[in-house]
Amino acid sequence: MGIFRRGPKRDRSDAPRDAEFGYFSGDEGSRFRAQVREAFAEQGLEVTVYADSVKDSGDRRFGLANLAAVCHNDRRGPRVWPELIRRHVGMVLRTMDGPSALDTLPPEQIRAQLYPRVISESGLDPQTFSYARGVAPGLYEILALDLPESVMMLTDEALEPLGRLPDLRAQALHNLRQLPVESHESVKGEDGMRFEVVAGDSFYTASRVLALDALVPQLTGHELTPDGALVAMPFRHQLAFHVIRDSGMIPALNAMASFAASGFEDTPGAISPFVYWWRDGTFTQLSDREDEGDGLRILVGDDFQELLERLVGDSQEGA
Asked: Residue spans with biased composition (Basic and acidic residues) (predicted)?
């Protein structure tokens, strides 16, 4: 999985765009939805197609945003969309129509397959996930059950018979720390700019930020400093970080802001386009979009300003 993504060449960018998924042309959007309808028909379901979802005769609604992003990002282009869509629809229906894993798996296996996930508030229903823990503005941690073909995000009702929430979260974090690192690259640039990127097919790659204190020494051989780290979680398959040690944090922050914003766009499982300051498990947002236009700006609060002045001062004294 490349850390910088380029979409496949398809219709020209000046072709009329799809109203819901702007990375598709109008024709591509129509073709995508027709293929979704066909895939459901092959499974014996007639669906009503909307711009961002489909609905079957039983009023079950299936969102299309993640599937559209998967198709958009596949470098092989539209020729593989029918295969991707057919596979996705089959998996979704098997998961929904089959018996619940919570009813068929023994308790010890459920605990072994339990993981925490960081998700954006746009993917969260506060009425069914009232236990969700706020991580940062607009970001929440929930618990998920990892299954062979899917990930089950566990609601309040699902968690109730499984035990105490603190114990379940502790088990999920333990499982997260045991996951292998699939891919790790160092991004380097001018002025000594450097940050680390962890990527992988796991749905919990970005959520490893919850175990950053274990991940950093595993990958770098050095512990986190008291000043913490810069982190970015553009989408579920990617986590970027820079351990704050000196004024090299400044070029890393600027580069990571662009990296996070770019990685967030048009991706399945998008989490956040922003960079955060991680200190002992607490997150402070450091980047944001300009009030007008598509530019980025850095947010500097009092604590971060103090950190900047100290690091720059230390750098000048050491020069």
From this structure: 10-20
Strand ranges of the sheet holding 61-63, from the earlier edge strand across to the other edge: 47-49, 53-56, 61-63
What is the amino acid identity at position 277? W
**Does the pTM of the predicted model rise above 0.85?**
no
In the chain, % of residues over pLDDT 90: 72
Mean pLDDT of the chain: 90
Amino acid at position 63, single letter: G
Helix (H, G, I), strand (E, B) or coil at 269: coil
pLDDT value, residue 159: 93
300 touches 267 (CB < 8 A):
no
Give the pLDDT confidence score for residue 94 in this predicted structure: 83
Among 106, 103, 114, which Cα is nearest to 169's?
114
Residue 117: helix, strand or coil by DSSP?
A: strand
Q: 26-42 and 81-97 are packed helices; what angle lies between their axes, rounded to 10 degrees?
A: 40
Kindly tell me the burial class for residue 108, based on how many C-beta atoms sit within 10 Å of its own C-beta (0-12, 13-18, 19 or more).
Answer: exposed
Q: Sketch the domain layout of the chain as residue ranges.
A: 26-97, 101-178, 183-318
Any idea which residue has 């009702």 for tokens? 157
CB 289 within 8 A of CB 138: no
- DSSP-assigned letter for residue 223: P
- Beta-bridge mates of residue 62: 54
In the numeric block, which tokens belong to residue 295? Answer: 């530019």
